[in-house]
Amino acid sequence: MPNKNNNRQGRIDEEFKKELSQIISFELKEPKITGMVSVTRVKVTPDLKYAKVWVSILNAKSNEETLEGLKKTAGFMRTELAKRINLRNTPELSFVIDDSLEYGARIDSILKDINKG
Prior knowledge:
Layout lengths: L3 H23 L9 E9 L5 E9 L4 H10 L1 H11 L7 E6 L2 H17 L1
């Protein structure tokens, strides 16, 4: 029988991912955020105090600067999330660059080189 808490946690993570994607795409007016920012994954702690947000950044002037811009607007995003998602606590957001796409592409290219040889 699936654990009800894990199921709830998964739903919360997905809801945060969906709402953060909307906020980043349409609400933010931070000049440091350039390129296309996609929220790839969100992990909210069970006590709802913290949320780790993995983002993939494409075509940005600088990934570090974009990440800095996201961190700078975290307070605004948190306020927006509180309005949109009805939970007792709205977690503190921390952003991490998700480099799994680049990692996957690198492995793919290595495998192609091996197959050629």
